[in-house]
Design a protein that fits this description.
The complex is a heterodimer. By secondary structure, chain A is mainly β. Chain A contains no helices and nine strands. The two termini of chain A are 28 Å apart. Chain B is built from twelve helices and twelve strands. In chain B, helix 6 crosses helix 9. Classes of the chains: A mainly beta, B alpha/beta. The complex binds zinc ion (ZN). Zinc ion binds next to loops of chain A.
């Protein structure tokens, strides 16, 4: 089964070490994710593309305990088979805090401040039978 | 305090689920009740600002109310729709253009959590597809971080729900009128950690209308005018932590609630210590806790003691969400902010019945917060 990204331009793919793609303001150095053209910090109009760090610390988190509405959600929404998933903001040093799924969904195992690393996870299967993947962060063992 | 504009009539359609009555019709009923309360006819109303998020263009309700030719402006401003209608009506009267007008908010939403239109919210499809486009997640993450930083307990979240449903049980207009215990709130289904089912409000239905007049003419309509001393709406600044954000800056900004609160107190010329009761946005139990501090009513972390000690109960030192808030009333987006003002008018008139705050409250405060990082505050006095 081939793997396809949930979208182009949000993370590098295919890649052994995938990274999120963001922007940096040419004028003030502010980081943005996803890519955008204008800077909300200094109102500068010029930004350049930058790859974000793969490691950071968990700034906050929650657990998605019920199936999201589909659309927009592409993953499993069957209440019988739906598995709760973690969601958090990971602080990438010197750059930005990014929101992402977490591979861990057990409140006992999630701690603010813990080390996290970016990974790619399966999300759904598309009409052509490809496995659709998205980005997530996993606790660093 | 500035006393140029008075609320002289209030009307509400019951919140909750009303099968067979459209959101717009609920708005019309609220308008008729507000007119009756002020003793005015629809044809006396010189202008209207109104809005809904999901129940149609407000100005089309004139076909049911009467085609009087009045100036009717639709307002669409997310969770601050009602607050924006009120702000606009307030300033229209202050400017001297008209003497008597109405602010209207109504709505009717499908069941379950709000379905986010990712494109309408300026987000890529991947965001919703990946399971991140849920406002409930933001609320879970904000209070989880806050609990970590300021030592708020799960029990305190449960107590906020318990209070909301108890206050709702004394409010004939509320959706949820069955009291629940703190333990029942804590034990209900975990939706978005640390928030359970009974700690979240639900999208609902309802309508509210408020009739405003020049204060020096208020006696024509009521012997209990309530003065609108401040009405403020603010959007977010760089660095604030808001709903539906794929990323947030490393640097921290306190957010639009802090800005709108400060501006409202400045406008009214008073401080948080002068407020006798408040209706604070409680999309979920944690929001009420955080908004107590963001609006200046306590330091961060003090809520733990205040709520455990019962200070925010109707008979406490500082009553919060006396009508049951969003938790007991549900959230028809367009009407929600005006529902808070409606409750404060009742409280200041001394007409809140079983849930009346004792000792004749004189000054009351409302606060809404919502997507995409917007806040509205009003201060009312008698
Ligand atoms: Zn910049």
């Amino acid at each position: 089964m081939a793997q396809v990204p949930v979208t182009e331009g949000v993370f590098t793919w295919p890649s052994e070490t995938p990274q999120l793609i963001g922007s940096r303001c040419v004028a003030c150095g502010n980081h943005m994710f996803p890519v955008q053209a204008g800077c909300p910090k200094c109102t500068g109009e010029k930004t350049e593309q930058v790859l974000l760090g793969r490691r950071g610390t968990l700034w906050t988190w929650t657990v998605q305990g019920f199936p999201p509405k589909a659309p927009p959600y592409a993953g499993d929404v069957d209440p019988k088979t739906f598995k709760a998933f973690g969601v958090g903001y990971v602080e990438l040093p010197g750059q930005i805090k990014v929101e992402a799924r977490l591979t861990e969904a057990d409140p006992e195992k999630l701690k603010i401040g813990m080390e996290m690393e970016m990974v790619i996870v399966p999300l759904s299967t598309d009409a052509s039978g490809n496995e659709v993947v998205t980005f997530a962060f996993a606790p660093v063992a | 305090m500035s006393t140029e504009v008075a609320i002289v009539g209030i009307g509400m359609h019951e919140f909750g689920r009303t099968e067979g009555v459209s959101g717009m019709e609920q708005g019309v009923i609220a308008v008729r009740r507000a007119c009756a309360d002020a003793g005015v006819k629809w044809e006396d109303v010189q202008f209207a600002f109104g809005g809904s998020a999901a129940a149609g263009a407000a100005d089309t309700m004139v076909s049911q109310l009467g085609l009087t030719g009045l100036q009717f402006i639709n307002v669409a401003n997310g969770c601050a729709t009602g607050g924006s209608a009120l702000f606009s009506a307030y300033n229209t009267i202050r400017s001297g253009v008209f003497d008597l007008g109405i602010a209207i908010g109504f709505d009717k939403h499908e069941r379950g959590a709000f379905r986010v239109d990712t494109r309408g919210a300026g987000l890529g499809n991947w965001y919703g597809a990946s399971g991140l486009a849920l406002t409930t997640q933001f609320f879970g993450m904000k209070i989880n971080r806050y609990m970590h930083e300021y030592g708020i307990s799960h029990s305190t979240l449960g107590k906020v729900s318990e209070k909301a449903f108890r206050n709702g049980s004394m409010n004939p207009m509320a959706w949820r009128r069955k009291p629940i215990s703190e333990q029942e709130a804590l034990d209900s289904l975990m939706l978005s950690y640390p928030l359970t089912q009974y700690m979240f409000c639900s999208p609902g239905e309802g309508g509210v209308a408020l009739i405003l007049a020049r204060a020096d003419k208020a006696h024509l309509y009521t012997d209990k005018p309530i003065f609108l001393n401040a009405a403020v709406v603010r959007s977010r600044r760089f660095g604030s932590f808001e709903v539906l954000a794929p990323s947030i800056a490393l640097e921290h900004n306190a957010g639009p609630t802090v800005d709108s609160s400060k501006a409202a107190f400045e406008m009214a010329g008073i401080g948080p210590e002068d407020i006798d009761l408040a209706q604070l946005q409680d999309t979920e139990a944690g929001a009420e806790v955080m908004h107590m501090a963001e609006n200046g009513f306590c330091e961060h972390g003090e809520q733990e003691f205040m709520i455990q000690a019962g200070e925010t109960e109707i008979g406490g030192k500082f009553p919060v969400n006396t009508d049951g808030g969003c938790l007991a009333n549900g959230e028809p987006i367009g009407a929600s902010g005006l529902r808070q003002v409606y409750e404060n008018v009742l409280q200041l008139r001394g007409q809140a019945g079983a849930r009346q705050v004792p000792n004749d409250p004189k000054v009351a405060y409302t606060h809404v917060y919502g997507a995409p990082g917007i806040s509205g505050v009003t201060i009312l006095s008698r």
